[in-house]
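Q: How would the structure tokens look for this protein?
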Amino acid sequence: MTKVHLSKSELPKIIANIEANGGDASELRAILEDSPKANHPEEMSDDEVVNYNRSISTVQEGEGLVCSMCKKTSPRLTSGTCDQCFRSWSLSCKAAIVKMRRKDGSSNHG
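A: Here is the predicted structure in token form.
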């Protein structure tokens, strides 16, 4: 058996392609849905949120890369942003989700 490593961001495209061609993607769909914390950032630590978002993002490494947010150069960009801006963005998303769920009383569990 050959192992293939895929990111969770690639799985929805593969699942859609399989199902569009009449195939059964139920096993891949189960893998995609097997990350309950990803759907509940309020249950994750700040570092877990940042690391999860980084794991599903594009990372570039090299000299002279420029952050699209702060415009500073960085040896690594994640989704076009330096580590500091990426962390700030990730945590602002977490805060927004928590605030939204508190406001509407939902937890998205289930």
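The longest strand covers residues 59-66.

The chain has four helices and two strands.

Upvote if useful.
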